[in-house]
Amino acid sequence: MLKKLLNQATIELTIEAQGPLLIKSGIEGGADPSVPDMRFVRSGGSVYIPGSSLKGVFRSYAEKIARTVGARCCNLFDDTFCGKQLEKQSNGGTIYQQSCRICRVFGSTAAASHIKFNDAYPPSGQNPQTETRTGVAIDRVLGSVAHGPFDFEVVTQAKFTTAIHLRNFELWQLGLIALVLRDLAEGLIPIGFGKSRGLGEVKATVGKFSVRYVGQPDASLPNPTQTVYGLGALAGAEREAYGLQANDTITLEHAGEADAEELLGVRVTFGAEAQKEIFRKCVNERWKAVVQHDRNR
Question: Which regions in the chain score pLDDT beneath 50?
Answer without folding.
Answer: none
